What does this fold into?
Amino acid sequence: MEERNTNFMRLLSDRSTGSTLSLNSNEYYQTEIFDQLPSVHAQLSHGQLSRAPRDKASTVPLRNLVMCMQGKRDARDRRMRQISDNDFQEPWRRRQSINRKRVWSYMRGAIAGLLPWQHMLHAIEGRYGVGVKAYFVFLRYLIFLNLLHCALVWGFILGPTMIYGRSNDSEPLRFGGNDSVLDFFLGSGYLDRSPVFFGFYTRGSLNFPCLNTPLLYVTGIFTIIILSLIMVVRRTTVGYKHTWMLGKHYSINVSYKIFCGWDFTIQYPAAATLKHSFIRNDLKLFLYEQTFSMRRAQWTLGQRMRLFLLRFILNLVVLSLLGGAFCLIYFATIISQRDWQRSNLYLSTLVSLLLHYLPPITMTFANLVLPLIFRKISSFEDYSPTIQDNTTLVRSIFLKLASLGIYLYFVITTTSQTRENLLGREMYKLCIFNFLITFSTTFLLNYPRKLVQEKYPSSLLARLSGEQHFLVPLNVLDLVYIQTVYWVGVYYCPLLPLIGTVTLVVTIYIKKFQVLRCCVAERRMIRASSSSVLFHFMLLLGLLMAAATLGFNLYQYKHMYSLFLL
It folds into this structure.
């Protein structure tokens, strides 16, 4: 009898009895079999479970526990008994906490429903997948970011200038006899004397030692750069953390999609069709990636060596194409700067306009053609779908940012004019030309091509053109490129964020028309989480480039501040 009356407390180690993870808090092991263990009876008899401190796991919602319904009911009863034994006020506080969480959840849902273009995003996600939706979410984020920049420009730069006025010797702003409509495309004439550019802002009646127009101007620009850096870094890190968690626990996510992904509150057939499309597109992407992983695991050593050699040769081809594009941009910049004054004397208006826009035209041509070549090259490198898109993105963003940096360097080093307004005009022309290319590509190329395919599907032209797909990586590159132009030019063209906001708002409707009217869904989906992280990382690179360009120009030409001292 003495041997049977075993002291089970003697069998428990100090680590197990002193652990901060109490048995009641670890709901994953609260089963009927576990409750029958001798060690549990021993602790119940000594009252240790009631005195054990509750940790964070005890506050995990029951719906997040991997248990059957009966196990969750038992866990809920144990929690209520533990709460009533410890503190009679705890149930009331717990109910209040749950009610507050529900209220905040409803408020977040209501605010999310008030965001612009929310219905459009749901429709696009249902038809084309989360990858295309990620592009429009990214575009909407840039619109909000530029709206914030507009508020800062008004508060620090434009507002004080309008309220306190300019210097007494400043010329009044009026449309002169030499001004023309062409000035709105070139940024010269009337537009050059307007608040759009740097030269408009001089010392006015606001001329105190600690508060003046130069100080407010520089403070506003640096506030835009620093605030943009904080916001972009935050979204990049949050997205990377989500992608890392999704990569480690994606099997759980797939199980949730299959067994628990349906929303039983749906009442309309259109919403049910969209929900079907969401789940189907996500599962198609997962199955495609799993098939690629299984095929890659069967490669032999010889196949891997041949693949590495092929990738090395293709990377040499990519470098050669990049070098050729940079040389082309260099010669276009030299020709444009050399013939700028002479073109106004004896050349026609159209030729003069083409010479002014020769560098933007060259950069746009390279940025349109080479990413398509990069995308074709990445298909021969035998990467997974996500890595193919990321490789194309990295090569293309290097092309766009490097071409923009080379163009700015040649403009700064080769011109002999006043650099402040000149750089502002160049950024203004890049912004206008990029918007014109977006509009022309959609309505003068993609839409007529779609009409030909619909009216004459059996014609040779329709068969050669093929189906149109919305290439998310290449369209995101355009957004990163133009946002980098806004950041680079905001010092020399303070109203560039306002111009950018208007063009981006129009762009979102142009792209909506292109996607819903001209394009078909991709057979190969891309993951929205990894794509969104890379989008914001490329945006961060563009912001760093803009800050470096601004710092280099301020250091190189310190006489830029002399304009404020007038």
Observations:
- The two ends are 105 Å apart (CA to CA).
- Residues 1-41, 43-57, 245-250, 560-566 have pLDDT under 50 and may be disordered.
- The first helix runs from residue 8 to 11.
- DSSP finds 23 helices and no strands in the chain.
